[in-house]
Structure formats: structure tokens, C-alpha cells
Amino acid sequence: MILFFAFCVIWYSVSRGDKDPFKPEIFINLYYFIMVVSGPIVIYLFFPDIYQDGLYAEVLELLSMSLLCMNIGFILSGYCFNKPRVFSKELVDTQGILRLAQIFLLVGLFSGVFFYLRAGNIPIISDNKEVARVMALSVSGNGYFLYLMTLVMPAVSLWAINCFSDKKNKSVYFIVVLATIAGLFLTGTGSRRYIIWIYVYVLVVYHYIVRPLPLSKFFAVGIGAFVFVVLFELFRNPFSDTTADFYTAVLYRLVIFSSNLEKVFSAFYYGGEFFYGKTFFMDILTVLPGKQDDYQSWLKEYVGLSFEGFGIPPTMAGDFYINFGMPGVIVLSLAFGFFVRSVYFFLVVNRFSYYSVFAYCLLLEVFVKMLTSGLSAQSISLIWVALILAVVRYFSPFLRKSQ
Q: Where are the transmembrane segments (predicted)?
């Protein structure tokens, strides 16, 4: 019943305003439902015994409530901030953008070389890719090099802005090639998300600066991205039971996050104490000297799980539940929806500029990652994005608005 009301609210939320595929009402909702909320439904349809033995009915209720409240937050933000779109008359120093993109790219490439040298291999071409991926990041200090390595992503975004803002020379093919090379360089770490998000960055920039992306093409790209994720999983873990064939890998991808949530939810449902916001700072504390467990690794140990790989991502709803129970899921999901929709309004709708498009690219990625891992696991990412945006603004290649 809660899920039905959530769909009604989603329909109302999406029907208001334009059909921008990258606005939260469409992009965030699609990702959250397909990758997280649909999980218990898929388990009920294809694995009924597992559904009955676990707390998946309660998990579906939890996720439905989170989805509903998030969309109420979208709507409330839409009512609070509903001024018409105003484009800023911002001049662009294209050479400044290009220089900054080149600096980011060079820092990212050199950091990546150090990352691979310190790891002793390139995980994606190792025999056991999953173990190599974990071992590479277990090298002391390699996490810092990985963050610096990811600077190639905003570099591609800035380069795309530089090219697409030039009416005489929109070098789409060059940007696609650059994005592919940068994405493959990052994919060497064993993670697939980097190359996907680099292409998303390019699409967002193209959509807002050159030509709006039709919903039909957006859905086609989304399906292609999902197929790529499944194929990458088959390549990375060929001997796992979850990748026995393409069909099994698809089902696994649809249920993994809700399955993780069910394990976490069960641990707290049967008497676990809530943390009242303490987990929000766990990852931030890992920058302190000495060994500090990150949030997801700590959570994996807390719920008694043991498997190859990193920790367990509890989803946004699970993260909120761990800290404040169901009231936290309701209030914080609503706050999340309100905040994300407000960011979209201030960056895209009412303050449209090249800098705001760049900022929205980076923030959209963090918001989407929060859906599957929670706020606690993305606290460092939020700080990192804030630092990048501050650096870009301080060394701003974007000239002041014309007088």
C-alpha cells in the first residue's frame, strides 16, 4: 500500500514541470527504484523461499516509505522554489577552463600511475580481479592516490564544457575518445562506476549546453549502462555463483542492495541499538593517524558477514534506519529529497551557468551513490566534491557576469 502511494506521488512529482531526464524526479527515482526498491519484489517473484525466510516484507515497507518521503521532499522543494528559469549572462574564458582541465588530468594520471605501482599490478587484468582490487586499496596510503586519480573525471567534464561552449567547434568525438581513455584508466582499479559516470558527466554537459537529450535516448542509454554493469560483473567475477550466466547476473544486480539491507535491518530489528548519527562521521575519522575502520567494513563485521571485497552498503534507507529507526527514515528521506531538488533548482533551473552545470555533474554522482550506500559512506565524497568545487571557483576560469 505504501508503495502504491509512493507511485502516485512520483507520478504527480514527475508530471509537474519539464521532462528533464537529469532532474531528481526522473533520474534519482529511476535509479532508486530499479537498483534498490525493486529488490524485494524480484526476490518475492523469483526466490519466494528466501523472501519468506527473511524480513523482506518489512524491508519493502521500509524502502517504500523512504521512496514516498523522498518524493514528498521533491514536491515541497518545488513549491518553495518555483521561480521561472533565468539564464546568467556568463562569459567564459575557454582557455582558462582548458588549463584547469589539463591540470586535473595530469594530477589524476600521475596519481593513478603511483596507485598502480604501489599496488604492484593493475587489478582489472589480474587473474583474481576481486582480490587484486581489494589488495590494491589495502596498501597504506593508496586510498589518497585513488581520490587524486579520480580528478580525471572533473577534468573530462571541464574539457567537455570547454568544447561544447565553443559554437564553432563542438568536438563531440574528441570528448567521447577522451572520456573513454580516462574511463578505461580508472577501470584498471577494478571498479566499473568510474567509466559510467564519466559518460554521465559528458551527457549532462551536452544536455544542458548543446542540446537536450530526449527521454527515449535517455532510457536507451540507461539500459545500455545496466547491460554494461552486468557484463562487467561477468568479466570481473567469472567463477562466482552470482555470475553463472547473464540471467543470474541480472537478477543478482537487481537484488544485491536490498539483500544487503535485509541483513543490516535484521541485525537492528532484533534488538540492535541505534547510533543516532554517530556513523555519519566514521569515514571522516579514517583520515586520523592509526588504523580506522571505514563505515561499510565496520558494518560488515557488525552484522557478522564474511566475504571477499569491501564492506556492505546498507542503502540510504538502511543508513537512516541504523541511526534513528523508522522516524529517521521518514524525516531524513524527506530532507534528502528536499535538499537534492533544491540543489537542482539553484544550480540548473534558476542559476544556469557553466560552473553550475559542472557542480551539478559532481553532486549528482554523490547523491546517486548515497541511494545505495547511505550518507555515512559518502561523507568523504561530499567533502571531496566540495573541495573540488571550491578550487574551481577560487581559481575560476569562468569570468564574472557581464555588466
A: 26-47, 59-79, 99-119, 131-159, 171-187, 194-210, 216-235, 247-270, 320-340, 352-371, 377-395
How many helices (H) and strands (E) in the chain?
18, 2
Give the span between the Cα atoms of 295 and 277, in whole angstroms. Answer: 12
Q: Which amino acid is at 210?
A: V
What separation in angstroms does the CA of 312 have from each of 66, 124, 315, 329?
19, 21, 9, 19
How far apart CA 151 and CA 28 sit, in angstroms, is 24
User: What is the pTM assigned to this prediction?
Assistant: 0.93
- Cell numbers 527515449: residue: 216
Tens-digit pLDDT profile for residues 126-164: 888 888 888 898 888 888 899 999 999 999 999 999 888
Give the type of residue at 289: P
DSSP 348: I
Contact 190, 132 (CB under 8 A): yes
**What gap in Å lies between CA 88 and CA 401, rounded to an integer?**
7
Neighbouring CB atoms inside 10 A of 59's CB total 28
CA angle 46/47/49 to nearest 5° reads 145
| Terminal C-alpha separation, the chain | 55
